[in-house]
DNA sequence: GTCGGATAGTTGGCCGAACAACGAACTGCG
DNA sequence: CGCAGTTCGTTGTTCGGCCAACTATCCGAC
């Protein structure tokens, strides 16, 4: 029973995901960030300081994953965490001035990633692919509940 | 610059991949395996004993990732590794008898994963999605070289 | 007011994943 | 024959990702 015969669609998702993530990693390397960290920073750049929990929810991360990732970003000086005065349990996260220097590189990396992902697809094909992915996402989300 | 605006297609790939992998992890948990290990075992079950390098290539894994994963599987008694007599650098990997007990569960998990991924898609829609993923894979592969 | 439950983050453990650096073994060329 | 270069696998380090267990804080009911 080979993988591709048991689950052709799952296998295809697997393969595309691997390739895409690997490409993202290579492109992002020039910025010095690891894949995923740019999501955190982009969320902070666009939405401003926010509670750690909200940030985790925004990019759909586990709380432990977010905590550790922020600890690393903080250590790199890209992020600042301050306890909220209102509720001493919550932590407010914000991007530092220093992190702003990375923004052009990150946007460039994502643009290039998108360019290389879209490839030579026509607009119509691109719409098809997006629609297909949306269908998959909807199905998978439905399977969670 | 939000992620979805910079790279809508990339973002969609990202999201589907996360959901799919998480679902795979949940389904596989019942077998006691971690996502990825089932790929190794399935390859060994179908193709028999083989060189570690060939195995890594078959499921497109990094050599270090394969080495460590096999070390864990070996520790669990699911896999046996013996040095090749012909070439003392190479290691021959084989699935143990004990591992065979997991086969039904693994196949069931992958079947369920596929079922939940396909969802209520018609055959035609399913073909569309597969074609779309194939196009993406082709594009991404082309971007590697 | 106090005590129990809910909420916010952290930490430990384990895994897959990538890169770099390394040692061991083989191969082929001069 | 000997040595350079290649191939095979391992180890170190650093990540993201998940679960489980824990601490600290807050809130609400009694």
Automatic annotation (TrEMBL), chains A, B:
Q: Which organism is it from?
A: Promicromonospora citrea
Highest taxon listed in the record's lineage: Bacteria
Which molecular-function annotation in GO is an example for this chain?
A: DNA-binding transcription factor activity
This protein is called: HTH marR-type domain-containing protein
Instruction: Tell me which UniProt keywords the record has, alphabetically.
Output: DNA-binding, Transcription, Transcription regulation
**Which parts of the sequence belong to the HTH marR-type domain?**
6-138
What InterPro entries does the entry give?
Answer: HTH_MarR-typ (IPR000835), MarR/SlyA-like (IPR039422), Tscrpt_reg_MarR-type_CS (IPR023187), WH-like_DNA-bd_sf (IPR036388), WH_DNA-bd_sf (IPR036390)
Q: Which residues cross the membrane?
A: none
- Biological process, per Gene Ontology: response to stress
